[in-house]
Write a structure and sequence with these properties.
By secondary structure, the protein is an alpha/beta fold. It has one domain: Rossmann fold. It contains 8 helices and 10 strands. Strand 1 and strand 2 form a beta hairpin. The chain is globular and about 45 Å long. It starts with a helix and ends in a 9-residue tail after the last strand. The N terminus is likely disordered.
């Protein structure tokens, strides 16, 4: 499985940027500077890993991309939106274009897999017919069609993460952010989840994975964005988890 994953190539590199950060800094009310002068772009269809030690600024960067965090300075553009000066009323429209997957799944325990997946579109007021088609497509992509009527507590950890991914992609996002998506999974299931993210990337979705899993990053040899002390210290194509040399 690992060799197949390593052979995957990025789709659509060189296209218009889905993410663009220009000299971005984040400073919290406590005075802590979480990001300092970060500039980067992610093109349509790219796959990149975001790495760095705890406290490096990864969570702040992810928060910027969905406007959970606002920059102290600089410009943030995501999926055509100027996030740094986006009115609060337009935030839901941004978040329709960005899917997010977390380490702890964050599924609604009293809703089935199908209902969890549909919920992401229901809150936007999408038509019922559109929701049904989109949900079936998302469940087919993640391989959960036969488990669609189960509740989260009847699923394995890997199945719960697949359900979370279905919910994240049901709206056909331009950007999929996976924040430590394998942190609660055993190694074999972790590779299956990474393979799924690779398949979604091959559909043209830009994928950004924040992770501490050095084996996955080093084996896949994708683009690696390395943060340390709030600064982007490296941006390498076909990079490894640790700086070489």
């Amino acid at each position: 499985m690992m060799s197949n994953l390593a052979d995957m190539t990025n789709v659509g590199e060189g296209g218009s940027p889905v993410v663009s950060l220009n000299n971005v800094s984040v400073r919290y009310p406590s005075g802590h500077v979480a990001l300092a002068g970060v500039s980067l772009t992610l093109n349509r269809g790219e796959f990149a890993f975001l790495v760095g030690p705890s406290g490096a600024g990864k969570s702040s960067l992810v928060g910027l991309l969905v406007r959970d965090v606002l920059p102290f300075a600089g410009e943030v553009h995501v999926a055509g939106y100027s996030v740094h000066d986006l009115p609060a009323s337009e935030v839901p429209y941004l978040r329709r274009r960005v899917g997010v997957v977390f380490q702890d799944f964050r599924l609604l325990q009293r809703r089935t897999v199908r209902e969890n997946t549909a919920f992401a579109l229901e809150v936007t007021g999408a038509p019922v017919e559109e929701i049904e088609v989109a949900v079936e497509r998302a469940l087919r992509i993640v391989g959960l069609g036969k488990l669609a009527d189960r509740y989260p507590d009847a699923l394995s950890g890997g199945e719960q993460q697949r359900a979370a991914i279905a919910r994240a992609i049901v709206g056909n996002p331009e950007l999929l952010i996976a924040d430590e998506p394998t942190g609660n999974l055993d190694p074999l299931i972790s590779w299956e989840i990474m393979e799924l993210l690779g398949q979604i990337n091959q559909l043209g979705v830009t994928v950004l994975v924040a992770t501490h899993d050095s084996d996955i990053v080093t084996t896949l040899r994708k683009r690696v964005l390395g943060l340390e002390g709030g600064r982007l210290i490296r941006d390498e194509q076909r990079g490894t988890y640790h700086r070489v040399g």
